[in-house]
């Protein structure tokens, strides 16, 4: 008996038909909220720039310096600046998405089908983010070295060609499944504790989940920058 892998699903979803494609509506709803929060902070923090930053402007500049430090450390001092926006966007999106999933009781909001959750709780989102990193990885290498970039596949010997190709496939797989697995596992653990001991235990577990969510955003952004830096070297 044959079946399509695209038909394999986990849980129930709110389906929308957009441009001939079937998408998970509950993922788009929370994704739009994440983007609105990030854009709102950016607009408010840069609307009245001051020489001595304070408030939201100070917070945004601190975040920028932190992200720029990640890019500089992984990509290198001479090449990191063009990649700060990408690394920063990836970090902020995953960070805000994970925190929304950990802090907001989405299960209290009823939908016709499915339930709201962090966008990173859906494998489609994490795979899309990983593919963006892969595209950036190839673009950076090709821009820096031209066709010479593909010589890496036969280095140090043509015998390593299958292994080097497999390595490029394994990078987005590891990125996507690591993020997806950790977010889903955290939500399952919190849900189980809330059912078993609904008063005392869930709070410290939720705090641990918030910490883990932040670490996952840092890991994804750092590895993305490291892969880009590797292709440029």
From TrEMBL:
User: One Pfam family of this protein, by short name?
Assistant: ATP-synt_A
GO MF, one term, reads:
proton-transporting ATP synthase activity, rotational mechanism
- Which keywords belong to this entry? ATP synthesis, CF(0), Chloroplast, Hydrogen ion transport, Ion transport, Membrane, Plastid, Thylakoid, Transmembrane, Transmembrane helix, Transport
Its main localization is membrane
Q: Which InterPro entries match?
A: ATP_syn_F0_a_bact/chloroplast, ATP_synth_F0_asu, ATP_synth_F0_asu_AS, F0_ATP_A_sf
* Bilayer-spanning residue ranges: 23-44, 83-103, 123-142, 179-201, 207-228
Q: How does it sit in the membrane?
A: Multi-pass membrane protein
Subcellular location(s): the record lists: Membrane; Plastid, Chloroplast thylakoid membrane
GO CC term, one of those recorded: plasma membrane
Q: What is known about its subunit structure?
A: F-type ATPases have 2 components, CF(1) - the catalytic core - and CF(0) - the membrane proton channel. CF(1) has five subunits: alpha(3), beta(3), gamma(1), delta(1), epsilon(1). CF(0) has four main subunits: a, b, b' and c.
- Report the protein's function: Key component of the proton channel; it plays a direct role in the translocation of protons across the membrane.
UniProt record similarity statement: Belongs to the ATPase A chain family.
Report the protein name in the record: ATP synthase subunit a, chloroplastic
Q: Which organism is it from?
A: Emiliania huxleyi (Coccolithophore)
The coding gene here is atpI
């Amino acid at each position: 008996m044959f079946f399509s892998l695209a038909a394999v699903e986990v849980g129930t979803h709110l389906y929308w038909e957009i441009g001939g494609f079937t998408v998970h509506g509950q993922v788009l709803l929370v994704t739009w909220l994440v983007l609105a929060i990030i854009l709102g902070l950016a607009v408010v923090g840069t609307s009245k720039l001051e020489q001595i930053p304070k408030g939201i402007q100070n917070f945004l500049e601190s975040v920028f310096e932190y992200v720029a430090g990640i890019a500089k450390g992984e990509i290198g001092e001479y090449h990191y600046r063009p990649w700060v926006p990408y690394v920063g966007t990836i970090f902020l999106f995953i960070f805000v998405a994970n925190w929304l999933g950990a802090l907001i009781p989405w299960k209290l909001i009823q939908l016709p089908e499915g339930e709201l959750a962090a966008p990173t709780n859906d494998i489609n989102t994490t795979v899309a983010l990983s593919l963006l990193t892969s595209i950036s990885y190839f673009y950076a290498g090709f821009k820096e070295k031209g066709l010479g970039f593909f010589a890496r596949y036969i280095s140090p010997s043509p015998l390593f060609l299958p292994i080097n190709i497999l390595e490029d496939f394994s990078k987005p797989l590891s990125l996507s499944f690591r993020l997806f697995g950790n977010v889903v596992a955290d939500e399952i653990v919190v849900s189980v504790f809330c059912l078993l001991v609904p008063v005392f235990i869930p709070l410290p577990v939720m705090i641990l989940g918030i910490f883990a969510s932040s670490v996952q955003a840092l890991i994804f952004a750092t590895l993305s920058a490291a892969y880009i830096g590797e292709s440029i070297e």
